[in-house]
């Protein structure tokens, strides 16, 4: 049932082809700024298979910040909220086609399910069991533009509707083969120049950013100025009536 095969990257173990290509680009950019990188595979049930690794840099905080500035624009997601002084390691994840899965579940207010869904999707992508055929179909639907919700393996109304919209048979065996061969939707090119917008929400308790993103707090929320790739993390703690 696997869709892709893992590749050996240097001597650290198997990674997905798109992760390998992203690491090659990261290595090239690190060489330009004379930043030494050491890679090791990160594995476990809470790590996306073939998309997780630990990167070790030099002994100073500046090197860690350089790693972030190179890795985030290439599509890597750091595990930490921001570079942490006192350490020279960072866990990086190249989520690739499964970033949309996190975005959708978080957008539905089900962010607590998102990470384990990505871990399951990545596992099924490189080889799962026939008993998980329903979850495989749901994962592939997300990859090619459908939205069946969480990867619970239950072929309910949302999964059936997503299959219908794409014109795919509801038969799981047939659907799994068709979806595995389909390409994801093309990504819309980013607009040139800075983008500015406002984040307004009751209970915005903190917001931090990294990369080419500037955040200014306002009485009602925050103003974002995006010049290029970066990362924004916002925490909300709305007050509730007692």
Description:
With 242 residues, the protein is of the alpha+beta class. It has three domains: 7-94, Muramoyl-pentapeptide Carboxypeptidase, domain 2, CATH 3.30.1380; 98-181, no CATH class; 195-236, no CATH class. The chain is built from seven helices and nine strands, in the order ββαββαββαααααβββ. A hairpin with a 2-residue loop joins strand 8 (204-218) and strand 9. Helix 3 (99-107) packs antiparallel against helix 4 and helix 5 runs parallel beside helix 7 (172-181). The longest helix has 16 residues, at 17-32. The radius of gyration is 20 Å and the shape is globular. The model has no long low-confidence stretch (mean pLDDT 90).
Key features of this structure:
242 residues; alpha+beta; Muramoyl-pentapeptide Carboxypeptidase, domain 2; 4-stranded antiparallel β-sheet; 3-stranded antiparallel β-sheet; 7 helices; 9 strands; 25% strand
Task: Explain briefly what this protein structure is.
With 242 residues, this protein is α+β, with helices and mostly antiparallel strands. It has helices spanning 17-32, 61-71, 99-107, 114-126, 133-143, 157-165, 172-181, and strands spanning 7-9, 13-15, 38-41, 52-56, 76-78, 89-94, 195-200, 204-218, 221-236.
């Amino acid at each position: 049932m696997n869709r892709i095969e893992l590749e050996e990257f240097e001597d650290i173990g198997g990674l997905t082809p798109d992760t390998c290509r992203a690491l090659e680009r990261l290595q090239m950019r690190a060489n330009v700024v004379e930043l030494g990188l050491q890679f090791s595979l990160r594995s476990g049930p809470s790590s996306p298979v073939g998309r997780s690794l630990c990167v070790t840099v030099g002994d100073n905080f500046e090197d860690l910040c350089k790693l972030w500035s190179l890795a985030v624009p290439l599509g890597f997601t750091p595990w930490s909220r921001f570079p942490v002084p006192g350490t020279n390691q960072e866990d990086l994840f190249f989520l690739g086609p499964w970033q949309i899965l996190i975005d959708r579940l978080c957008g539905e207010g089900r962010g607590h399910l998102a990470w384990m869904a990505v871990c399951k999707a990545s596992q099924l992508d490189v080889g799962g069991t026939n008993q998980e055929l329903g979850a495989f179909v749901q994962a592939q639907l997300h990859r090619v533009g459908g939205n069946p919700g969480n990867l619970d393996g239950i072929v309910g109304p949302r999964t059936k509707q997503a299959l219908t919209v794409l014109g795919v048979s509801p038969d799981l065996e047939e659907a799994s083969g068709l979806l595995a061969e389909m390409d994801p939707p093309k990504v819309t090119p980013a607009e040139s120049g800075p983008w500015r917008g406002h984040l307004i929400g009751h209970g915005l308790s903190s917001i931090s950013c990294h990369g080419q993103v500037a955040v200014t707090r306002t009485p009602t929320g925050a103003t974002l100025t995006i010049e290029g790739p970066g990362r924004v993390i916002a925490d909300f703690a709305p007050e509730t009536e007692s």
